[in-house]
Amino acid sequence: xxxxxxxxxxxxxxxxxxxxxxxxxxxxxxxxxxxxxxxxxxxxxxxxxxxxxxxxxxxxxxxxxxxxxxxxxxxxxxxxxxxxxxxxxxxxxxxxxxxxxxxxxxxxxxxxxxxxxxxxxxxxxxxxxxxxxxxxxxxxxxxxxxxxxxxxxxxxxxxxxxxxxxxxxxxxxxxxxxxxxxxxxxxxxxxxxxxxxxxxxxxxxxxxxxxxxxxxxxxxxxxxxxxxxxxxxxxxxxxxxxxxxxxxxxxxxxxxxxxxxxxxxxxxxxxxxxxxxxxxxxxxxxxxxxxxxxxxxxxxxxxxxxxxxxxxxxxxxxxxxxxxxxxxxxxxxxxxxxxxxxxxxxxxxxxxxxxxxxxxxxxxxxxxxxxxxxxxxxxxxxxxxxxxxxxxxxxxxxxxxxxxxxxxxxxxxxxxxxxxxxxxxxxxxxxxxxxxxxxxxxxxxxxxxxxxxxxxxxxxxxxxxxxxxxxxxxxxxxxxxxxxxxxxxxxxxxxxxxxxxxxxxxxxxxxxxxxxxxxxxxxxxxxxxxxxxxxxxxxxxxxxxxxxxxxxxxxxxxxxxxxxxxxxxxxxxxxxxxxxxxxxxxxxxxxxxxxxxxxxxxxxxxxxxxxxxxxxxxxxxxxxxxxxxxxxxxxxxxxxxxxxxxxxxxxxxxxxxxxxxxxxxxxxxxxxxxxxxxxxxxxxxxxxxxxxxxxxxxxxxxxxxxxxxxxxxxxxxxx
Length: 719
Ligand code: GLA
Description:
The N and C termini lie far apart (about 65 Å). Helix content is about 20%, strand content about 30%. Strands 5, 6, 7, 8, 10, 11, 13, 14, 18 and 19 form a 10-stranded antiparallel sheet that branches. It contains 13 helices and 35 strands. By secondary structure, the chain is an alpha+beta fold. The structure holds alpha-D-galactopyranose. Alpha-D-galactopyranose binds next to loops. Pfam families: Glyco_hydro_36C, Glyco_hydro_36N, Melibiase.
């Protein structure tokens, strides 16, 4: 009765629909805005209004379903926002005022809901940007006040989702931890009552130890093709915090945003504080469907040139480290051509004169060519590359400084460090204070200077190898608690300027491997470096896990000397993304070189499918002797299937067929093994085989992985 009465009072119901899904926001009798639904959309939109009646409200226990939980008034769950008003009061109440929906284009809509505190001149606007076809939502908040003085934002999440508990199966969190060379280690477990938090306080390299990307399965862990699953992540390259609170009524509240640890933000009257976006998608067809939605969204809308092309490359990091000179590089440029890749990427070690960069303990900050190694400068290398018919790219780490550098001596106030404590280094270096606009100008100038002096420079690898210790900004003075937030916004300012001037040039996002992979940064980059660990066996697992969230076109995979696998295995694994090499070409045998050259030709023919097609994870390396992954073109006329033996115990291999996915059941496909090592026979026998999509998806194909065929690549073409 009580609820019927409430519904009769001017209740506002706001469905936010995408192609398959809906989020439903609704006001209650006190005009609080609740999130009452997230799931498959209903055929009859009028029924959304009645959803909340199905749940016994837990109002008396103080547990509610606020769409953005304020702190210190009627809701007693984990807050999305906590403030200290100008008068010192810590209580916030938010009530619904109005909302608007606008269409950005055919696919994108924007819902803005305005809420105010009845007792204070304090306002929060919730933004829901939805991508209809992709079922993706980006959600953020804009906070503003007109109080008499500064308001302190103690916590300021981007989004607050409420998932209604309904069966006894509960909620299952899949999360990631890692470290250098062991990125993307997954764990999946049922959430218990109380709060589980994943977070980062590292400042830079924010996801070195934990990643903000997660999946919540409902009722039971979703598989690739079955189950209800929500994928989420922060679009933020700094400290993040995501709370998962399972309340007494078995509802799950997800509060995601910037980590408020040591980060109270002082907000002046009339100034807007915009939180970064929290990104999410939902599927009731399992993790595979959710990933394909995210991958497609990223290509269409987020990464730079997601529908475009990429450059294959030869990198010199592992073949030379810091030890090179012009003549060595001249040889490597010839090797680049000989191998048949598009670009040579000169890595770390090319700069610094009073403090030459001959190791990782000096030179960062001094971005002038080292005169001994490169007496004729970068420009002569760019020209020489051109003379060899290849392009030239270069490594930088412009956010950093070594104490052994001219920059450190010239601008000690640009460096993040505590004035009254000994310096603490990570890889012998410190972080520059990007909260300071002068430092932003300097960092922009590093990139701009390179392109201005070398207009034909074709690629930049942007690294970031240190975390922030002893956070203190000489520039921020009394607002020290702004440092983590202003650092990231400062970094984004620089990247925005870079992109305004150089909209399409390929940039690789690197952070000593995958220490900084998120869509906040990736909107300025074409690709990222998943891990310094390029052992292909490890990469099968690392690339598998990244693929839940990031499309193959963003994954820079290089063939190196890591691991014990033969060159074929290494090349095949690198093919599942943006392919590159970091080996000494001169040390390859004739057959190894010719294998690489022909694999590059195969890659050329298939890269469009790998970069822009749909990805299907067929057999997980975690559960099987062999992992299988495939990519299918939009029109389903071309596909490629990669298969790797990941268990080297006696007798291991693929004994049963692997069912393919995403094909047209009515099309006939010619299946051919490619990337055959010179002299090796195909697992399929002498003849190419032909099957219908129907057969391949219901019976499957046996890729024949065994100790003799550790890596098998099958190409499918509709005939
Ligand atoms: C980081 C990167 C490597 C390489 C080195 C150079 O570790 O991840 O790929 O560029 O820096 O110092």
